[in-house]
Amino acid sequence: MFKKRNNRLAKPVIRAIKIYQYTLSPDKWLPSFWLKGRICAHEPHCSKYSIAALKRYGFWPGIFYSTDRVLHCTASMHKNYDPDHYRVVFFSSAPIGVPFLEALAQDKRFEVVGVVTQCDKPSGRWMEMCENIIKETAKKINKQENLDSENFIATPTKLHPEKSEEGYEFSQRIKEKKPDLLVVIAYGKIIPQAILDIPKIAPINVHGSLLPKYRGASPIQSTLLNNDKETGITIMKMDATMDTGNMIDILRFRIPFQWTTKDLIAEMEKIGPNFLNNTLRKYGKKLLGEVAQQEQKASYCGKIEKESWLIDPRNDTIETIYNKYRAFALWPKIYFILNDKRVIIEHLELNEPIYNSNDQTPLFQDKTLNPAVLDIQLKPEGKKTTPRKEFVNGYIK
Fold first, then answer.
1. SS3 label, residue 223
2. Predicted structure pTM score
3. What is the pLDDT at residue 9?
4. How do residues 164-176 score in pLDDT, each as one tens digit?
5. In this structure, how many other beta carbons lie within 10 angstroms of the beta carbon of residue 33?
């Protein structure tokens, strides 16, 4: 009811603005031959912007946006591109991208005009071809908005327009969408500069660390492996190299002792989408600038190697083991070798005060577990998950 009333109230205001355009507006009335572009430096000009805002947002939000635009418009301004909403092409291939894509699609300040993700891949016991979760989400959005599915979703294998016909066709497809912004989060491929140059405003990356720390493929895992007490999300303008672009804004938060990768990702999925949307809006309005990264403080993290999640419970310190457990709790989980069999640590819960005074001691000492261990669940190869007491009595000698 409120939405319908809001839209009804907007109609007479739109009519009034159109009358103004053809009677008094310096952009359309008779003096426009001399005054066009000299009174309003915005693109689109204020009256056109106001009509678009009222149509898109309804009366009250539309009035607010229109008034704010007029109050910030002076003849002395430099030419300023300032649309009523921003057209976005979204790049992602990982589950963490889902809430960001959904938030952009639901926010009227943005219009998702395309989604780019990786190709379907074989999965499961029978290695059947499966769509990734970003493509599934894009299809739902596509259905809700009644868009052309084939044109809305792209899964290119090659991106560079100068190195392949597929890359050229992909770049033309992106250009046709006339995006204001490219938004990239965990896409999984290097995007060439020729594609990054397409959006009218900027290509934007959402990175899961406090840049310039942990540039690269595994920032969330690296944060926990190094036992950092704080992390966050960095919104940056992309360039052709890995995570080196200018920073636009940073959202910081503390890391509780018991949090694992799963908890960190859940927190980023919870607080990140709203932060991204507001940052994009402020950046588009030129309320936020860019800050260059300090190269001397940069650190890099690559893809996680297989040997990273192997531990030695009798020699590795509980600190090392717990850091690895937290980092790899979501995937692939840490393990050790016992009697030539793998034993996966499914769950590990520690007492923080006791841990702080025993962090340099191993997990196992003879048949005794480290005193910091509150709970541990282990899964021997080919067996069911085994609780602490049963495992110690049955396996540790």
1. helix
2. 0.92
3. 85
4. 999 999 999 999 9
5. 7
Residue type, 188: G
The token duo for 226 is 């190094």
339: left (phi over 0), alpha (psi -120 to 50) or beta: left
Q: Which tokens hold the place of 266?
A: 């859940």
Residues found in the chain: 397
Whose tokens are 């660390």? That residue is: 209
pLDDT digits (tens, 9 = 90+) for 83-112: 999 999 999 999 999 999 999 999 999 999
Contact 120, 131 (CB under 8 A): yes
Report H helices in the chain: 2-21, 32-35, 46-57, 59-71, 97-106, 133-145, 149-152, 165-176, 193-196, 219-225, 261-284, 318-328, 352-358, 388-395
Which amino acid would we find at residue 320? Answer: T
Q: CB–CB of 218/199 below 8 Å? A: no
Contact between 309 and 346 (Cβ < 8 Å): no
Give residue-wise pLDDT tens across range 218-236: 999 999 999 999 999 999 9
246-268 pLDDT tens trace? 999 999 999 999 999 999 999 99
Residue 230 makes CB contacts below 8 A (sequence gap 6+) with 210, 252, 253, 254, 255
Nearest to 186 by CA among 131, 117, 129: 117
